[in-house]
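Students often ask why we bother encoding 3D structure as a string. The short answer is that it lets us treat folding as translation between two languages. Here is a chain of 680 residues written in the first language.
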Amino acid sequence: MLKAARLATLVCIATAIARWASADPLPAHAARVVAYSIDVSLDAGTHTLTGIQRLTWHNPSTDAVSDLWFHLYLNAFRNTNSTFIKESGGQLRGEELTEGGWGWIDVTKLTMDGTDLLRGATMMAPDDGNADDKTVMRAVLPHAVPPGGDVTLDIAFTARLPRVFARTGYVNDYYLVGQLFPKLGVYEPAGTRGRTAGGWNCHQFHANSEFYADYGTFDVRITTPERFVVGATGQLKSATRHAGGTITRRYVQDDVHDFAWTADPHFVEVNDQFTASREVSAAEYQSAAALVGRSIDEMRLSDVSIHLLMQPSHMPQAARLLASIRASIKNFGLWYGRYPYPTLTIVDPSYGGLGSGGMEYPTFITGGTSMLLNHWPFEEIHVNDEVLVHEYGHQFWYGLVGSNEFEEAWLDEGFNQYSTGRLMGRLFGEHRSLGAIFGIQLGHVDEGRISNGPRRVFDRIRQPAWTYSPNAYQFYSYDKPELALETLERLLGEPVMAKIMRTYSERWRFRHPSSDDFYAVASEVAGRDLGWFFRPVVEGTDVVDYEVSQLSSLRRTSPEGRLGAGANVTDASSSRDQPYASTVLVRRIGGVSLPVTIALTFESGRVERVPWDGVDRWKKLTRVTSDRLAGAEVDPDHRLWLDANWTNNSRRSMPDRTAAATWSARVLFWVQQLVALAGL
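And here it is in the second language, the structure alphabet:
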């Protein structure tokens, strides 16, 4: 018979295995809250848009809702008084908004059943009270929309696109058109993301924020001069040519929460296909299914038509970029659930339009590359691959899991940075995932850690994106979350972490989670409360930093002096035969405590590993051994990617001169390569 405690343990294990093996089924469709039908025309001479829009909103709550809140994102570029320009100083993503490059949107019609709502509409500034900011508009309805009811509005708008700046705009004949229409905010019912009462979530457009919207259907007809090559969110359903040299293309997509498009007469269209039966082997399905505890049927991927729009000078990069995208569709799908849409459009921005590069919209992403990457010595640089992998990854953490990027940017950017690093390491190697040049290798661990440091104590990962201290958004939304998730994976083990991420992606597909929802999934799958990790790391401001502060290893001396009646010892020569007395002091410098291992390495090659919960501020180890203690290292396996300073993690009892020699050789090698390049 099994003892009761052992039986209880086995029951818990069996329950956990059963839970992992029983997936949350991937929903076939989203709960469709919005339906947009839009006709928009581009005047390429003035860089303006004219649009009409029919919008139907379904009330998802048990509340009677008497108003609607809209985002007017293009008004962020209207003038220097907008909150976006004040926060960014008119400079963002390597671009500067200059005189003549302004953009805006004007709503010229807003009616409900023939009733004019525009007359009573007001601009709102819920975040900073800036009366001059016009990126949020509130319209009061003549009667409330009942719980579960629908309302349909007819809208007309005109817009001028800015010169490419912050994800949208034009340069010469190249257009990246995002956030072009009056777009509803999200009415969050009570209980959504911790809300105690229902209400609109509709923030102003900030320099350090992106987007949040409800799922629904988009049916968009885009009219441009006939010379333009066009790509957009969704499937191309028809193309109709008109007298006067224009063409209208109709794109339709269900179960998305945004729409964007691009136009450029110089695009070279490259079409490719991700065919799941060809790209994924039976062995790969089996391996992935075993890792995340799912059946083979639950792991099956769908075919995807890939539409790549390349600049002519970048065509030598096309095959490489397509390979990266196919690898992304495959691996992200195996890890987090299949990509459910039939198409994916990839845009290579024009020269001068890189401010629109590296951006994501549903079924539509923008990359960015350079002709330099076609040639030695830059062909081993993988930055362009990383950009595409990263933007495709947003299809999961921004697109399929509807994260609120205003309030909890890390749930998208941080999760995606972690996922990107995971795939780049698999494709190109852990230590050269970003590339190699002249013998210098750079991996995603270096990219994430390079911005970390002991003084990063002023902000939290989980806070509204526009409230970070200056120049901190990138670190707390991208880098620190990646380091946190990598650390959690190494503390829990890869299988547990893989199941956490898969379960979270499945359970919250087409829904709006909060950080608390992720904590709940992680704790459920891990089988224990992980608040000990999330509270200090995500909700707190302190850092992780352990150091080996002191190390000594000396032979014990023979006793000297008067040791007993009439016994004086004056000869210490026998101390050479004494054992070594070693002392190691390890300190927790940072405020965050995580479990670590301390490795003691002796000159004989023997290694002793000592576990430490890391809670106390310091731990002292003493050993008496026949051989000298050569060195000590805290976290020798580098499980704590969050550690702000790995250089203080180890000490040696004797100086190690090989490090200086190694670095001298590397510097000499780099100098030789630079001289050779200059000669070339």
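Translate back mentally: Residues 658-679 form the longest helix (22 residues). Keep this in mind for the problem set.
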